[in-house]
Design a protein that fits this description.
By secondary structure, the protein is an alpha/beta fold. It has a seven-stranded mixed sheet, with helices on one face. The longest helix is centred in the first third of the chain and has 14 residues. The protein starts with about 25 loop residues before the first helix and ends with a strand. The model has no long low-confidence stretch (mean pLDDT about 95).
């Protein structure tokens, strides 16, 4: 895995000892091209739920986000992200060991972009619980975007906030807007 653009461009991240499924470089590059069309990424506050090895968080930090918060309930993943933050001397980066739902209820921030990438074993009900909690707690800024990475079996087009779905190889991204 590598950081594609920004301050840490081309830095390789070795995470082989973690049980994580990072977003592929191809899908990540396509995602960030889309996001850059809608946002100045140096002006966004980002929440990365189910951060895993930190792949998406690093990309936002590298591109100058105001603040990026990474959440994961896997302690080895959280410790790995903290190690990488220290190694790369990343600023404006907060990492928490927590569940997604618990953090959504406890956060004091509102976000421009919320990235959700739970294990592919998540079913539609679990995804809906997370999205419903985000909208209930009103933590997405006006004109904000939720990006959900998911399998082909998951569908969000029943949400009024659903904007579009994109597919890159086996990776599916759904976009929901505020």
């Amino acid at each position: 895995m590598r950081i594609i653009s920004g301050k840490y461009k081309n830095r390789k991240i070795e995470f082989s000892k973690l049980r994580a499924r990072p977003t592929t470089d191809f899908a990540k590059e396509s995602l960030f091209n889309l996001l850059q069309n809608n946002y100045n990424l140096s002006e966004v506050v980002v929440l990365d739920l189910f951060a895993g090895c930190g792949n998406i968080s690093y990309e936002f930090i590298s591109r100058g986000s105001i603040r990026t918060i990474a959440i994961d309930s896997n302690l080895p993943c959280v410790n790995f992200i903290k190690k990488m933050k220290k190694k790369l001397e990343m600023e404006n980066f907060e990492i928490y060991y927590s569940t997604a739902i618990k953090h959504i209820y406890q956060t004091k921030y509102k976000f421009d972009i919320i990235f959700i990438d739970p294990p592919y074993s998540f079913d539609q009900k679990k995804y809906n619980e997370i999205l419903d909690t985000i909208y209930k707690k009103n933590i997405l800024n006006k004109d904000g975007t939720i990006v959900v990475e998911h399998s082909k079996l998951i569908n969000f087009n029943t949400y009024t906030q659903f904007s579009e779905q994109r597919k890159y190889g086996k990776v599916h991204f759904s976009f929901l807007i505020q």
